[in-house]
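FAQ
Q: What does a multi-component entry look like?
A: The components come first, one per line:
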Amino acid sequence: MAKIVIIGNSAAGNSCLQSLINGQGNNEITVISQEELLSYRRDQLLDYISGKAEEKDLFFCAEDFYSRNNITIQKNNPLIRLDIKKQRLVLKDNSKINYDYLVIASGQRLELPDLPGKTKDGVFGLYNLKEAKEIKQRLTISQSVCLVGEAMACLDMALIIAAKDKEVKVISGPQPQGFVASDKAEWIAGLSVAEIIGEGSELKALKLNNGKALAASLIVFCGNYTPNSDFLKETGINLGQGYIIVDDNMRTNLENIFACGSVCNKEGNITKEKSWEQAAQEGSMVAGVLNGLIERGKIPCQQTS
Ligand SMILES: Cc1cc2nc3c(=O)[nH]c(=O)nc-3n(C[C@H](O)[C@H](O)[C@H](O)COP(=O)(O)OP(=O)(O)OC[C@H]3O[C@@H](n4cnc5c(N)ncnc54)[C@H](O)[C@@H]3O)c2cc1C
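Then the predicted structure of the entire assembly, as tokens:
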């Protein structure tokens, strides 16, 4: 029996978990999740905001899935530190967990750029369901929306807002095909945001770097994600541009540590975005490799010093 710990409970982490369970190995599995919510379809967040999907449709694991399968899940308790020598994780609540095999499926995040006024009420990044819920709610009362960030991510969101007959302005790179400019929809390429303006916490507008102000009651930053690998600094695990580097078996440079999904990449092949399907396939591949190793009795010994 091996102690397997999975960091992250989304496409890659959950698919790895399901494949380990289906492999029927008698392992002790723990899932560490930063989010309070159970696994949900992040790739359907835009459908949720547009109204095509309801919140309940996003969840794909029953509440009792973990207990029924003897899985320990730590919700809202992220990994903070990794002690490679002791094969031990330290979580936010300071609890410690040992592992034989570690699977890192910590994905990405969206960080708001460091702009004056970024904490005003009505400024959001869109990466998780909590943010999607706040954006959806805010959209019901907002007439003028500004989207800032990566072109394709902004385009998808702009189409949803335009369909709701709201005014939308996109500050991004070159205008992609599919965006139809109108008196209510404008694409502004080649400029950036200098400041977010308002009185107190109230959001009024954003100011571009050419000095022009655009009225906004909702600002959403889209795309330009960062891999969640900060906890690996000084562990000796190879990173490239923040992504965990893995081999063809999704193994890191450390024998008993694997990575899958959008937090990792193959050497010399940095892909900043992966599809949900691709992340899930990688998770299931890690489970296959782990099942093979464990079947052959390969459980790494913990070092004590
Ligand atoms: C708005 C949006 C729309 C998208 N639309 C599509 C689409 O239409 N089609 C498509 O194929 N893909 C889409 N994607 C991309 C898709 O969601 C990703 O490919 C997929 O979520 C990647 O899965 P992952 O498991 O690698 O990482 P993530 O989904 O990022 O999950 C990683 C999980 O690990 C957790 N975590 C991070 N750090 C820690 C830590 N230290 N301790 C514990 N847990 C941690 C995070 O909280 C998160 O829950 C979209 C993404 C977004 C944001």
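Q: Is there any commentary attached?
A: Sometimes. For this entry: Residues 276-295 form the longest helix (20 residues).
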